[in-house]
Amino acid sequence: MALSTIQNNSFADTAVHGFRNLVTNGAMTVAQRSSSVSGITSSSYPTIDRWKFEIGNMGTWTASQEASGPSGFSNSAKILCTTADASPAATDEVKYSQFIEAQNLQQLAYGTSDAKQMTLSFWVKSNKTGTFIVWFYQDDDGRQLTTSYTIDVADTWEYKTILVASDTTGVIDNNNGAGLRVSFVLGAGSSYTSGTAATTWEALVDANRYVGQTVNLADATSNYWQITGVQLEVAAEGESTPFEHRSYGDELQRCLRYFEKLGGSGATANYAAFGIGYVSVGTGDYGAAYVSVQPKRATPTVSTTGTVQYVSPSTNGSFTLLGDAYIDASGTGYINLYPLSPTGTFAQPLLIRANNDATAGLLFDAEL
Q: Fewer CB within 10 Å of terminal CB in the chain, N or C?
């Protein structure tokens, strides 16, 4: 066949298109906060960007970014039990989740007769064999779907695919809130496992959430679970396509919409500058601005690590954030930083910097 006669739809049918994966950081490459956090007993984003460790009174854990994975993957997320809970209370649970922004899910057409099926695929490894639940929750209408997979061989990477049914009833709003949660369940009490599995989309019933989970990863110390290559894509027949590998830079930009760490890594210069500004109207009124690398999903919570300082020609002092932050409506994304009870002289310049502390930094959190 002459090249000129090849039809465009031939490419559409056979090519593996980019931008398929609805999950961010599925290869576990970006970890701005830390590569490892131990002693976890409450829900947080401890290590790998966009992945939330959710826990309700069920053991103590270490979450880490591992420099290992199946062929083709250099990183994985690892959850390790360090304090056991072999007999969880009824409302105990532990899971590893990603919350996906609603406006990124409009192609699913949920709430219409054209609602799309999806396929979830991933690589997983654990010392525990048995059945695990992946729970989907649609925030806007409070609807759930229960799916499962089985780890067959201990300590071995296994590839799993799960068909995710379409939902013709629940509508995912077109906004910057949470549209869909994807939760890998690692253990749960009877309040969430005693009903009937929600194998089709239904209104939230707690007893139906994780029915079928046979593994309690918290039942002994040194139990672990690892995952990488997580991909969620539209796929009518439940077939998965090869993992969509993105560059580190591209994945980082996606993550920065939700969280940004400025300094604080221990590699920061001792007097690194974080923001510049001026004393606007006299004593007690300072302001400095930091231009965000990536506009945030919403107004972020701003916090500090280490010792951060404000400095002007007339004075300097320890920096305590008021938590005031603002995202420009035009989308340029700047953040105003205000010291607490500063002193100074009108119209003098202001610098916010690390105070001889390589661990000093600013954290901007706009996670779902």
A: N
What is residue 198's three-state secondary structure? coil
Residue 299: pLDDT above 50?
yes
Full-prediction pTM beyond 0.90?
Answer: yes
What CATH number should be reported for the domain whose range is 19-256? 2.60.120.260
Sign of the dihedral through C-alpha 181, 239, 234, 14: positive
**How sure is the predictor about 15, in pLDDT bands with cuts at 50, 70 and 90?**
very low
For residue 179, the cross-strand partners are none
Residue 7 pLDDT: 42
**What angle is formed at CA 125 by the lines to CA 122 and CA 130, rounded to 5 degrees?**
100
The 3-class SS string of 144-173 reads EEEEEEEECCCCCCEEEEEEECCCCCCCCC
Query: How far is Cα 236 from Cα 354, in angstroms, rounded to an integer?
Result: 52
C-alpha to C-alpha distance for 4 and 228, rounded to whole angstroms: 41
Cα–Cα distance, 171 to 200 (Å, whole number): 15
Q: Which of 62, 60, 63 is nearest to 84 (CA)?
A: 60
How does pLDDT run across 236-289, given as a tens digit for each residue? Answer: 676 889 999 999 999 999 999 999 999 888 777 888 888 887 766 555 566 677
Number of other residues whose CB lies within 10 A of the CB of residue 292: 21
CA atoms of 200 and 167, how far apart (whole Å): 8
The average confidence (pLDDT) of the chain is 88
Contact 256, 297 (CB under 8 A): no
Rg (CA), the chain: 23
